Amino acid sequence: MLSNKYSLKEVFVVKGDYNADLLEQINNFCIEKNIKTGMINAIGAVQNIRLGYFDQNTKQYSTLEDLSEKGPFEIVHCGGNVSLKDGKPFCHLHIVVSDREGKCFGGHLMPGVKVFALEFVVHSFDGAELERGLDETTQLPLWVE
Ligand code: ZN
């Protein structure tokens, strides 16, 4: 187990841009503000959705079936963290969205999701740098010591 202790450095409350890519927009914000470690929460609405699923047997990410006919969607919850990957701030986010009937779909947030409305909060932490590296067992870019 890897465990680091941090103190809260700054909190940013951000209104995102219409039509921008959800993941890219949050990731670029963290790069611009040089947020190396932190926690991210977002709500709002998206015009489409692209959800990733990591197959633990094949060790490959796949994008879930095309959900475009069920959209647009509310963001019920989108959350995750920011740490370093290849020395740069990198956001790892998961998302749950709901359709017009309240049915929910969730998974790993992939690029290619267009924002309709977005409100996100970033809690930036002070402390040891947290870097991702390839984990041999899972073949995922997990936190390394
Ligand atoms: Zn994930």
Q: How much strand content do the residues show? A: over 45%
Q: H/E series, N to C?
A: EHEEEEEEEEE
Overall average residue pLDDT: 96
**Total domains:** 1
**Total count of strands:** 10
**What is the percent of helical residues?**
under 10%
Bound molecules: zinc ion
CATH fold field value: 60s Ribosomal Protein L30, Chain: A
Number of discrete helical segments: 1
Mass-distribution shape? globular
The level 1 CATH classification is Alpha Beta
Structural class estimated from helices and strands? mainly beta
Give a short overview.
With 145 residues, this protein is mostly beta strands. Helices cover 8% and strands 53% of the residues. It is built from one helix and ten strands.
Give a structural overview.
A hairpin with a 6-residue loop joins β9 and β10. This protein has one domain: 60s Ribosomal Protein L30, Chain: A (2-Layer Sandwich), CATH 3.30.1330.80. Helices cover 8% and strands 53% of the residues. By secondary structure, the protein is mainly beta. Zinc ion binds next to β6.
